[in-house]
Batch of 2 targets.
Target 1
Amino acid sequence: MTDAPTRESGVETDEQFRLRLRAFLTENHPGKRPRGVLDRRAWQKAWLATLYDAGFAGPSWPREYGGMELSFAQQVIYQEEYARARVPGPQGTGLGIAAPTIIKYGTPEQKERFLRPMLRGDEVWAQGYSEPGAGSDLPSLRTTARREAGGEEYVVNGQKVWNTHADHADILFCLVRTGTQESRQKGITYLLIDAHAPGVTVRPLRDLTGGEHFTEIFFNDVRVPVANRIGDENEGWPLVRTSLGHERAAGAMNQAATYRRVVDELIELARERGVASDPGVRDRLADFEIRVRIMRYSGMRTISDILSRGEPGPASSTSRLFITTFEQDLHEFAVDILGPDGLLLRDDPRAVQRGRWVGGFLSTRASTIGAGTAEIQRNTIAEQVLGLPRDPAMPPR
Ligand SMILES: Cc1cc2nc3c(=O)[nH]c(=O)nc-3n(C[C@H](O)[C@H](O)[C@H](O)COP(=O)(O)OP(=O)(O)OC[C@H]3O[C@@H](n4cnc5c(N)ncnc54)[C@H](O)[C@@H]3O)c2cc1C
């Protein structure tokens, strides 16, 4: 894509920025994605350090924390070139979710301690919000933190679940209960927990694709310094809103840029399979083409909202719902046009393109659950975007 909005910025024009970034990504490309999990993690980690050391990490982050603080146009260009180059993405859920929360609510010491190592990939972060009895209804969470050691430490007990990549995380950003169970969101605190601390047990959970991306985490008398609390005690809920908003918005532009490439590859697949002139197929392809363009504008709106208001706003739910339903439809369609070949998984030597389409079909089943289910996104859109009355079955905020 070359039609991103461009303007002069300082001494370097946006087009010069694009070319400089493209040259860097080409010259420093870390090569093909390794197959083994450990090799893949090392490959990704090394890449993040290369990116940071060259000053190409954190396009939206403030410069004082090692980011690039790019203009709107350059953030769009950055995401497009990044997706085009097919380099590894960021590690863990820290960058898109925890970082904006720490930037907004953290103390200067916390920003100094946590932000740069996260951006450079030296410390991997994972999110500990959900619990077996608290997913959509997050305010009912039960993992407790009580003060000990003269008030200098919290002692944490409880269980989290569905924690993406927590098996190799260094820091867990968690919600814990410091108030009574009845206080719901008024008794929740935002705590950063050392994943290697005594009493933390992380167990992998196998998903539909056979991968072990998820985990469950158990806290048994885990001691956490009060200095690791972001915001005030019992005041974690506004931070949750910030981080969930960013989670839903996270990567909206990046995904739009990636799916731009994927739609082109899907059109190519339809040609290769000899179905590209079928009117029904053409109709579906046109639909994906339209949706990927809408996604791009929606991603731009998210960047613009964050730049102007510091927050993605409730419209991040619209973006999230749009992208997740799109990616499910797209992979379902790809598997359809592959016919029986579409069932072959990556380990089968006859699999088309190493089984990527069926792999995507299986993994995107979870897209409309993570970061809040599609139903919850629709509720948010109804109440906070359209201004409709709150669901009477829901407890008051
Ligand atoms: C890919 C993926 C990654 C994830 N990563 C993480 C992570 O890193 N860290 C973390 O803490 N969690 C993570 N999660 C967990 C995720 O946030 C929860 O699964 C999600 O919030 C739903 O909660 P639940 O599974 O408990 O389902 P429930 O909340 O029990 O929902 C069950 C069903 O009821 C519906 N429902 C519930 N309440 C309402 C309502 N008020 N109105 C209408 N329908 C409703 C839901 O839409 C859903 O269909 C991840 C999940 C997935 C799939």
Note: The mean pLDDT is 91.
Target 2
Amino acid sequence: MSNAPVDNGRRRFLTVATSVVGGAGVVGAAVPFIASWNPSEKAKAAGAPVEVNISKIATGQLVRTNYRGKPIYIVRRGQDVIDALGGHEDQLSDPQSNEAQQPEYAQNQYRSINPEYLVAEGVCTHLGCAPSYQKGDFAEQVEGVDYGFFCPCHGSKFDMAGRVFSGVPAPLNLVVPEHSFLDDNTLIIGVGKGDA
Ligand code: FES
């Protein structure tokens, strides 16, 4: 063991120098981490609103698009389908859409802004399978109801407003995303009514 006097001035310098290097190291490591918080152009595009030209959708037709990585179904409902929505409400789990599965402006019997268009995520609220659109042959699933969505995975059933029938595995109505109409021919998904 050395009996040499301790050089306090040198020790202090070493302590300060070490702290500075340590600090620089932290900053150096933090920069790439912070940079990763900025979403990429691709990520930004994936979250951007989606415009859909609805002028060519025939009555009864379903078209699909994607928004934020989820499939979106857009169906143009005929007047017969719209009128039939009131006829089976006693068989639905949440006919008044009391659960927050849609924006406030779509909390109505049609679950939409314009009764002619259903806009809903094509994702079953049980375990996420894609329900199939049954046009005219849905009565095989629910007697007396001609149109609806049937989930092939475990048999959940939804009506033409995306409302779930009782007694199936899915607990909730299909999710209606924020949407609005720019004009008669343009639907925009991701921008709510009054937010444009
Ligand atoms: S995922 Fe649709 S019924 Fe199970």
Note: The pocket of FE2/S2 (inorganic) cluster is lined by residues 124, 126-129, 151, 153-156, 169-170 (CB under 6 Å).
